[in-house]
Amino acid sequence: MTAGQGRQGVRDELYERLRVYEGRPAATAGSGKDPVNEPMIRHWCEAMGDTNPAYAGPDAIAPAAMLQAWTMGGLSGHTDRGEAYDELFGLLDGAGYGSVVATDCEQEYLRPLRPGDRITFDAVIETVSERKTTKLGTGYFITTRMDVRAQDEPAGTHRFRILKYRPAAVKGKTEGKGAARSGQRQGGGSLRPRPVINRDNAGFWKGVAAHQLLIQRCDACGTLRFPWLPGCNACGSSAWETVEASGEGTVFSYVVMHHPPFPAFSTSEGAEPYAVALVELAEGVRMVSNVVGVPYDKVRVGMPVRLEFLRTDPELELPVFRGSEA
């Protein structure tokens, strides 16, 4: 099978047009909007719950996983993106592949980043895959590679892969378990996505089914942790037990989701905006969930919230937090 042919040997003319963008620049001579700085490092570590002493003090370094953070353009974006990137996406959009989902990233770290480092970068469209069919739909995987420099020295490489796809048609099942699998609730409304349940978090979801919010406590050092993990971040022990959270907490940070509209996360069929919060539980750990009971534009940092369980459809119940404007 030659390049540009599908699995049955059918010529994929769109792929032939897309693959000519491989090797073309996605960004040239880009620069970070801010130098590496202590406030951003602190915010990152607080959000991630990372207390490694290497990230504080006079000889602090930035967490390696922050590599991409220093290159991001924020709400106003960057002005140094290459025309080829926009052209590539225009071709895909025009051919009906208008949906996008990030699939994975790979990073390589070449030297530590320290407060004061100036960040510059170049990015290239590294690969465009042949047309692939996934559960989401049919489309093309686009991989970009960003080469990051600090003080003009190579600092790391960031590969980011997305799928540009045409969503698969949803069969119109509206009854029982078939409706849940199809993404529709009875009456045709949207269902929330199903959580991924595996051997590491099955106990958490068993607790949810019993209306308990369970957090882990390390048997060796007593450190509480959430989300559920197979080992302790503090001491590495794999021995743990569960503790039921009281359900009390406060909003540590939050975002309001305006776009794209997703009726399954709204309280009506209008798909209005909704608040997603990082809630700090009374026990000291944090979890992400929806804030309900108050208008989305009334949610505030520090707002007291109380755990409750929301049944979104006959097969799914989720822990959420009810806020109080008072």
Describe this structure in words.
- This protein is mostly beta strands.
- Helices cover 13% and strands 35% of the residues.
- It has 5 helices and 14 strands.
- The protein has helices at 13-18, 38-48, 83-94, 176-182, 202-209; strands spanning 25-31, 99-109, 119-128, 132-133, 137-150, 153-167, 214-218, 224-225, 240-244, 248-257, 274-281, 286-292, 304-313, 316-323.
- Strands 1, 2, 3, 4, 5 and 6 form a 6-stranded antiparallel β-sheet that branches.
- Strand 7 (214-218) and strand 8 (224-225) form a beta hairpin.
- The radius of gyration is 23 Å and the shape is globular.
- Mean pLDDT is 88; it is low at 172-182.
User: How many E-type strands?
Assistant: 14
What assembly state would you assign to the polypeptide chains in this entry?
single chain
Q: pLDDT average, as an integer?
A: 88
Strand content of the residues, in percent? 25-35%
Q: Into which percent range does the helicity of residues fall? A: 10-25%
Report the sheet with the most strands, covering strand number, pairing sense and barrel closure.
6 strands, antiparallel
Number of helices: 5
Structural class: mainly beta
Order of helices and strands: HEHHEEEEEHHEEEEEEEE
Query: Unreliable runs, pLDDT <50, ≥5 residues?
Result: 172-182
